[in-house]
């Protein structure tokens, strides 16, 4: 069993969009993430120059591409993708290859800026190399969608394993 963490804090310099209006200490957050076996940190493209120097050299950058995104007046080009810094678990030989990007539209009606869609969440778990028996920590739960998706993803993986075991027993 591995310990996995996901952090989707207010992005660097954007805490004013949230009720708490408190900037996150991203250096401290990255040090905390380093205590996990695998982790991911959502951010935005303008913060990469700040965050990457805080990371170890084995950190990779994945992308959430938004085919439908919310464009702000006076912002051109629009922000239609978000970087995801991550360290995945080692993969077993023969495991399917996971893309380092996902195309999924933004969510609506969640009453929270940056709420992630379920497609993003399921991709994130696969990207990190998660297994159904892993321990998952959502460090900034927001709407709770990531944790709910983790529970659904685990149930799907466990059911798939049960189905495979049944097939093997009957073969």
List its traits:
single chain; 171 residues; alpha/beta; Rossmann fold; six-stranded mixed sheet; 6 strands; 28% helix
Q: What is the number of E strands? A: 6
Q: Provide the residue-averaged pLDDT.
A: 89
Trace the largest sheet across and list its strands: 5-3-4-2-1-6
Structural class: alpha/beta
Compute the gyration radius: what is it?
A: 17 Å
| Share of residues in strands | 15-25%
Number of domains: 1
The CATH architecture comes to 3-Layer(aba) Sandwich
Tell me about this structure.
This protein has a single domain (3-170), classed as Rossmann fold. It is built from 4 helices and 6 strands. It has helices spanning 26-33, 48-51, 118-127, 145-170, and strands at 3-7, 38-42, 60-65, 81-87, 101-103, 135-138. It has a 6-stranded mixed β-sheet with strand order 5-3-4-2-1-6, with helices on both faces. Helix 1 links the parallel strand 1 (3-7) and strand 2 (38-42).
What is shown here, in short?
Helix content is about 30%, strand content about 20%. It has 4 helices and 6 strands; from the N terminus they run E-H-E-H-E-E-E-H-E-H.
Layout of helices and strands:
Elements: E1 3-7, H1 26-33, E2 38-42, H2 48-51, E3 60-65, E4 81-87, E5 101-103, H3 118-127, E6 135-138, H4 145-170
Parallel strand pairs: 1-2, 1-6, 3-5
Antiparallel strand pairs: 2-4, 3-4
Helix pairs in contact: 3-4
């Amino acid at each position: 069993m591995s310990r996995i963490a996901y952090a989707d804090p207010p992005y660097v310099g954007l805490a004013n969009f949230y009720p708490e209006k408190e900037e996150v200490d991203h250096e401290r957050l990255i040090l905390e993430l380093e205590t996990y076996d695998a982790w991911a940190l959502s951010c935005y493209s303008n913060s990469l120059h700040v965050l990457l120097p805080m990371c170890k050299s084995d950190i990779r950058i994945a992308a959430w591409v938004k085919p439908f995104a919310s464009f702000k007046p006076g912002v051109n080009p629009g922000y239609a993708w978000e970087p995801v810094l991550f360290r995945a678990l080692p993969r077993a030989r023969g495991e399917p290859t996971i893309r380092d990007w996902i195309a999924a539209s933004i969510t609506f009606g969640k009453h929270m800026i940056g709420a992630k869609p379920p497609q993003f969440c399921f991709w994130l778990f696969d990207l990190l190399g998660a297994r159904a028996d892993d321990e998952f920590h959502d460090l900034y739960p927001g709407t709770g969608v990531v944790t709910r998706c983790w529970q659904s993803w685990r149930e799907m993986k466990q059911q798939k394993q049960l189905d495979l075991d049944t097939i093997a027993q009957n073969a």
